[in-house]
Amino acid sequence: MKLTFQDRSRPLARTALLVVPALAEEAIPLPPGVTVPRHATADFKADFRESRLADAVAGPAQRVLVVGLGKRREVDAERVRRLGALAAKRAEKLPAARAAIWLPARVEKAAGGPEEAGQAIAEGVTMGAYACSRFKSDAKKPKLLRVTAIGSGAAFRHGGERGVAIGAANVFARDLQDAPGNLMRPRDLAAAARRVAGRSPRIRCRVLGEAQMARLGMGSLLSVSKGSVEPAFLVHLVYRPRRRARGRLAVVGKGLTFDAGGISLKPPAKMHEMKYDMSGGAAVIGLFHALGDLDFPFEVHGFVPTSENLPDGKANKPGDVVRAMNGKTIEVLNTDAEGRLILADALAYAASKVEPDTIVDLATLTGAVVVALGHELTGVLGNDEKLAAALVAAGKACGELVWPLPLLEAHKKQMKSKVADLRNVNSGEGGGAIAGAAFLANFVGDIPWAHLDIAGTAWDAEERDYQGGSWGTGVGVRLLVEYLRARSGE
Q1: What is the DSSP annotation of 328-370?
Q2: Are the C-beta atoms of 169 and 287 separated by less than 8 Å?
Q3: Bond preceding residue 95 cis, omega within 30 of 0
Q4: How far apart are CA 58 and CA 373, in angstroms?
């Protein structure tokens, strides 16, 4: 599907479907020359997501779909984003090969301005058109081929082009997430990172194999893959801006392509969902997909430790002790708390080899964060309140909500082991999401760091037209792009 942008001053071209947003208690803003039968919208209230389809009686549109956005004061970028997704889904279902979305100035203003509206509508159309059908034997080609978004001039187009890049990156991450474990192995995740690097001369990719990681002393990361025939990798992506870099950021994403729990085997119910345990890694690779099309004044390093966690005779056993790259020894009390084991070495590598001024990690780390926050909020913890606050603000701006959780010295003390330096779980003290972050804090040094626990938001989120349900959400991609945008002052 191709998405293009047009100024409202230009005549509307012929289209199979015209989508028009309506505000409650206000007249429906049809483009000049387009009319529908009066009875078609006579009782239309324009409640949010209410829709009405009618054949046009005049103008270049064959059909007109009116979509309610609610009252003007209730409209924001999220509702415009959902409008775009609804338009794409309805056009595909009709089907309509060509569609146009007409955004009046009052809707743009409610969304934050033409640029913000353009970005939101483009994200919604791009993400709403996504469907994971490539594994079906009778998969059909998409019917919707072209969408034209119509708004206010250059600012609308500029925001729209950015929205296309961000939406495509989110979809790329979701496609990685939704792949089954036998087709998304560590080697496949590494290959996806290489493909992303190949899209842009400003991105480089290096993949460390097990022999290289062993020479670096990454015993914690390597211990997790011992029960699998699939080797582990550490992916290192680097983005360098066109202009002089104003800082260096490291993002680290957990890349467990399948997590059976190891010897501490998970119960079988919903174990198939553990293909999503690589969602943090997918978000990091998705971020670099976006960086290939955008320009931020930062040097960005992305790290994805990727492995499988399966049980066999060589797998970690409860009570085993492993040594991380920074020299810390770890008592593995629960082999199902493996994500923090692979993140530990990736964080230590990022801190010592890159020396960034900021580290952010993303991981489907704990079921405890789902208990605490449900499926609509990502938990953030770390050692820097300003960084956590910036991520909360970015989440609010892009619709990927983030909520801060505490991380106290008392929590860090709970991760001490009598046998080794650390243990990978606390023992009945509660606060499982906090315990995971308290463990990771030992591998970042004094660098400002934030940990995003996305176990609740990576899948099974509320249906929002452009994402939701049992599919992956690509959470983290749009959040990190918005964080970089705000940090750059753009």
Answers
A1: -EEEES-TT--HHHHHHHHHHHIIIII--SEEEEEE---SHHH
A2: yes
A3: yes
A4: 51
Q: Is the pLDDT of residue 451 over 80?
A: yes
CA–CA distance, 394 with 412 (Å, rounded to integer): 27
Tell me the pLDDT tens digit for each residue of 154-166.
Answer: 999 999 999 999 9
Please give the structure tokens belonging to residue 315.
């797998």
pLDDT tops 90 at residue 427: no
Residue 341, token pair as written in the block: 């084991």
Q: How many whole angstroms separate alpha carbon 153 and alpha carbon 156?
A: 6
Q: What is the DSSP string of 220-280?
A: HHHHHGGGSSSPPEEEEEEE--SS--S-EEEEEE-EEEEE--TTSPPPSTTGGGGGGGGHH
Secondary structure (DSSP) of 21-46: EE-TTS---PPTT-B--GGGSTT---
**Cβ–Cβ < 8 Å for 345, 353:** no
Name the residue among 490, 486, 477 with its Cα closest to residue 165: 477
Q: Is residue 490 pLDDT above 80, yes or no?
A: no
- The neighbour count for residue 243, using CB atoms within 10 Å, is 9
Backbone Cα Rg of the chain = 24
Tokens describing residue 40: 């078609």
Please name which of 408, 397, 470, 473 lies closest in space to residue 435, comparing C-alpha atoms.
Answer: 408
- The Cα 3–Cα 108 span in angstroms is 18
Give which of 112, 83, 120 is closest to 99, Cα–Cα: 83
Active-site amino acid positions:
266, 340
Mean pLDDT of the region 411-420: 97
Question: pTM for this structure?
Answer: 0.97
The predicted structure's pLDDT at residue 139 = 87
The alpha carbon dihedral of 116, 121, 122, 126 has a sign of positive
Instruction: State the pLDDT at residue 428.
Output: 84
Backbone angles phi, psi at 469, to 5 degrees: 75, -155
Which pLDDT value is given to residue 113?
98
Average pLDDT, the chain: 97
Residue 230: pLDDT band with limits 50, 70, 90: very high
User: So what's the pLDDT on residue 410?
Assistant: 97
